[in-house]
Fold this protein.
Amino acid sequence: MEKRAVSYQIINCTNRKKLLAIDLTEYFSLVFTDYTLRTITLGTAILGAVTGMLGSFAVLRKQSLLGDAISHAALPGIAIAFLITGAKDSNVLLLGALVSGLIGTFWIRGIISKTHLKSDTALGLILSLFFGFGMLLLTFIQKQPNANQAGLDKYLFGQAATLVESDVWMMAMVTGLCLFVLLLFWKEFKILLFDADYTKTLGFNTKFIDILITTFIVLAIVLGLQTVGVVLMSAMLLAPAAAARQWTNSLGVMVFLAAIFGAFSGVFGTAISASQNNLSTGPVIVIVAGVFVLVSFIFSPSRGLLFKQIRFIKNRRDLQWHKTLAFMYNIAETHEDISHPHAIKILNNFQGFTKGTLQKLVRKNYVNLDGTMWSLTEEGFEIASNLYNQQSDNNE
Amino acid sequence: MEQKIAVKIDDLTVAYNYKPVLWDIDLEIPEGVLMAIVGPNGAGKSTLIKSILGILKPIAGSVSIYNKPYEKQRSLVAYVPQKGSVDWDFPTTALDVVMMGTYGSLGWIKRPKQKEKKAALEALEKVGMLAFKNRQISQLSGGQQQRIFLARALVQNASIYFMDEPFQGVDATTEIAIINILKELRKAGKTVIVVHHDLQTVPEYFDWVTFLNVKKIATGPVKDIFNDDNLTKTYGINYKVSIQE
């Protein structure tokens, strides 16, 4: 506590005031020169990266809500650690958070396996019980005549400005360890995520892999409490991962992208929050991450809403000339000379067509028109035959 | 001819919520048979396979593979789960899923190399899916997904194959392709155990059959025991199946 206060004074006395008033451009020019800003920015970037990475696993395991339960379960740990030590040392508080987060997590697992309650019930139960208990302790602490207690409630919504260098080192170390374990057990993580039962039959200890992933998720969440806060921490896990999933079909790329998105959310969120009168960092970071999700949902080429709609419209438009061309192909096929001319009337009798579709086909050089007669070109015949192949492929 | 026993199950009992799902199952599966497990919904067919493979914990009973406990013989056993048991939107490719079949022999930490990739490609070719190796798995049809699962088990190069409804929701072409592969496995001396739903095809596809409905009703060669009597005992209604031949 003592040390921390001193370091605050040294680092922050001049910059505090700046932090309150600077605008965004100023912020980014200061990031490289100003020690405090650099520390905070680095901290949130690392935090965003590690939560994004681990969040990919949580999302793919359909355990999106686990993060929410863990972060809420951490709150009583923070309060109890403060009550025991009477000091606001962030390492001690986070240790308390870690312990109660882990207890919450294993209770959830216990409830799911020992009772017949479903996982959402277990999550909701632990989340609200622990959070309620944590809030109770916080209000109790606030009534105490200890001057230190001010600021504990920062853990609810986070305050990146309270990050100091040792916090960032801690985050960097956990992230490094996490990265190492991730690379080491990459194959095991991947197969467990995809098919846990099958993994078991191959002789892997699925419980060990599971506990490994979960422990790192808890660690990452606890690290983020100071910056993002208990209430919104789970968004740091989910949002970057959900956004990343839109852009790729490879697990490796997804984890990497989620880390990038998370890091950027952290940096931009902190920048905005620091430049706007020290808004709570958590909500701002989460909103920035939300923007990543929104953009990804709309603009992703393969899964995005925009391109899906465009493809849909294009398909519908193409269907018209596909239909006509396919019909022409059927007729042309029966002749030795595929470019044998036929009357347009023949189309009219069997298959609806419009002048527009015919003209479109002529423009594409698939069909030749000669007065009231049409004939397929070589190219048109080729396209039409592939049209069939493709359709049968799609229908399989 | 004295046949070796590939799988031996003693007194296997499994219960969910105090309700027995499998009751005191004794079963011997001879080596080299292509066996169907048939029974109504809720008879415990999938549960039987999962308990044999240690995915579910039985309350009593033991399983041995070639006279040794299953845990020691994992490398001899391959599993094809129900297609619906995984999320096919998982970000990975067909080849990658098939490669997972090599993870068991690789063990912890070691990554698949060229050799494993080659084995996976061969398995993909065997199930006629080589052209789709780089396809994202969500873009495969149900039948193709089933073939991928089969290929993943083939890569394991096991002696005993357990398959949970491999014909569920696949078209006729895929069904024929799969049964041909199963018959090839049997020809190669492997033992294949399949949870099966279509009673009509049992005599055509399989040479061994187990009737199951919580308890084991009967087990043996199809030509001896696949009859109306056993079907009625298993399904509880007066079953008349006209067996071809």
Notes: Chain B is about 30% helix and 25% strand. Chain B has a mean pLDDT of 92. Strands of chain B lie at 5-16, 19-30, 34-38, 60-65, 68-69, 77-80, 160-164, 191-195, 208-213, 215-221. The radius of gyration of chain B is 18 Å.
